[in-house]
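Morning. Coffee machine broken again, so started the prediction first thing and wrote up yesterday's gels while waiting. Chain of 407 residues, entered below exactly as on the submission form.
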Amino acid sequence: MNRRTIAAWIVYDIAVHGYGLMIPAVGFAIYFTSFIAADHPFAEALWSLAVALPLIGAGLLSPWLGAIADNSGCRRRLLLVSTLVCAMASALMGGLGQGDIAAGLLLFITAQLSFLLAGALYNSYLPQISTPENSARISGIAWGLSYLGGIACFLLCLPFIQSGIVPGNESYFANAFLVTAGFVLILGTGAILRFPAENPVDRNNQTTNPYRHLLNTLRSWRNTPEIPQFLFAYYLINDAMVTVIYFTAIFLKATFGLSLREILILSLVFQVIAIPSTIFFGWLGDRWSQRGATYLTLSIWILVLGLMGFAEGENAPKAIAITLGLVLGSTQSLLRSMYSQMIPPEQSGEYFGFHALVGRASSALGPLLFGLVSAFTANQRVAMMSLGIFLVAGAVLLSKTQPTRNQ
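Came back before lunch.
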């Protein structure tokens, strides 16, 4: 595959990471709960529902959409449509006013669902643009540089959001959503146009019905057990990673008494460290072993949880942020690369649809365990350390999967 296509694939990751930071993670999350639904008694619950519904929808739809992409050869068009819908819905958020709760929920759910579906389609290109010798490196560069997208989009939006949401300033704050939409539209669609066009796959009279094809694939896993084994290992590991993402800010505030400003600074430190670290571990995966590099990142994850459990003093939050920056993007990137080399390339859309399904499902169990342990022990340190169960179990199961070349 030529370098321009690989570069375009990397640029797309940079583009959508800007959306991921400014819409679901920071900008619109604050705007919805603090302004649009500020007078609603269940504003936080409504936002939780808005976050959960796209996760469920994307998990269920991704395998089906991937099967359609594989059979019809329209992966690029589906990715383009998903990206355009995400950008358009994000832009329309800029026109929302106080009390526009239903419209706000509808636009966010539309944008987030399109974003998640596009992510699965995007990932499915990795087996086509890489080889076993360079897949970890390409995946790592894309994931590492994607953090630059979040930083760049944040800086572009900073003039509009730096004053916060204050009376009379709400519409000015909302301009950040237009900037984010433009960021995704220009970089994302420009990158997609460089992606390779595809032709429908010749199935030799096999069914092209996506539902039947999905059923046939699931039945075939009796002969290829390494696929469900890997997906289950990914499920367990992702449980821990997702929970840390969701609760680190809350943990730092409750345990160390950090202010919002201090947490935001540490978040920036984390992203700056994640860029070279993710790229390095991708290089290490190709140079040494993807499986070995993944185990190394999981060992550092245990260190992260250990710091969360026992570290004391004013430098403890910095140590947590630095070690977390070393492994969050690195582990996810390596697992994506390993999976891309295990699946049939002609069914990459469908298989990465299952990968997305597992990823969305794993967003539930880890946070649930964290909440239960935290409630029963009244100690968030213990709750964080309990996530080590998922990492160890995932690592053990990963060791039982059949390695492919360079893993």
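DSSP finds 16 helices and no strands in the chain. Going to sketch it on the whiteboard this afternoon.
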